[in-house]
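Q: My labmate handed me this sequence with no annotations at all. I'd like to see what the chain might look like in three dimensions before we decide whether it's worth expressing. Could you predict it?
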Amino acid sequence: SNSPRSRGAGGEGGFDVVIGNPPYVQLQKDGGHLAKMYEKQGFQTFTRMGDIYSLFYEKGFYLLNKKGVLCYITSNKWMRADYGKATRKFFAEKTNPLLLVDFGQDLMIFENAIVHTNILMTSPPALSKGEGAMAARIEKDFNLDEELWEYVESKKTILKDLSEDVWVIGDSTKLQIKRKAEEKGKKLKEWDIKIHFGIKSGFNEAFIVDGKTKDELIKKDKKNAEILKPILRGRDTRKYYCNFADLWLICTFPSFEININSYSEIKKYLLSFGKKRLEQTGKTDSRKKTGNEWFETQDQISYWKEFEKPKIIFSEIVSEPQFYYDEKGYYPEATVFIMTGEKLKYLTGLLNSKPAAFIFEHFYAGGELVGKYRYKKAFLQELPIPVPTPEQEKPFITLVDKILAAKQTPSPDWRGEGG
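A: Here is what I predict for the chain of 419 residues:
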């Protein structure tokens, strides 16, 4: 049977031990071929954005007998990534986790695979359910010549009350910090804020122009200034400031419903890249298939008004927090996010602080990258932030204003030569 429960964990049949290193393949890869294949197979760990190793965990578990043990070495992303929620829920509710060893980002186990790994040992609930799992995180002080088990014994902690929430291995002090942060804070997703992706044009070479080209387009027709906006990329943002690279976006958003003939010089400029390359048909040498016109950006960008508001701009993959408070009207490229809403200067100061960075990186940052962390929307919105009173907020605003003034950069020239 293709069902993950073809034997049934804890039954009379089944194996004493299931051990292995399942493959790591994202289910949405190659147009979602694997996702379509397994979506209706009854897997509790299935999620379209997930990885096939989660299904291997479930299938392997249901091959055990009632005293059997499963032990896999896999990617550790399921512990904190959003797609791992179903996998964490399955382990917590259907199995009895016995041991979890997380190699973090400090030790690469496989020479030919750039993946951060962990080892999980689990069994059917009949085996001492409720005692908690012995867990250890491998740190930089681990010597490859020493026995792994001895190191685990020296660093072990017990994980209890596991659920679909993020699984964190840490000493009691770190876990107390996490609990206190959650008691005192309010998750960002519960704040009156919005987090939006940057703009995906589908063809940046055509839609992002340098300052000289921008000036030439405006000189030919002042009307072009209406849809030429300054843009920031991930590489341009820093902590509290940005390095504006004098790049400008042609804002032909589908949500604008632009008549391109009203911007004849921009139409001519875009066509210089070839209409076939600009078309959104999904064909070879064209952009991703959408219902948009050839001269429009790939995404609708219905939230464009948020770009004109005071906002926080931040990069997703960074080695340290890089939150920049913007009142200059920069538009965000696809490699950055924006945040609009309440108490933005307070949030800028707090999110750039070492305590907030520590809490995020240790408990909410999702799958780790080599020396970097992902300030992805799904991860960041889980971060608990204390809600200040007006009096508590004032010193943050004062301090952030001082830092912004000290790091001030020239504003982009909105008018160009024809303004």
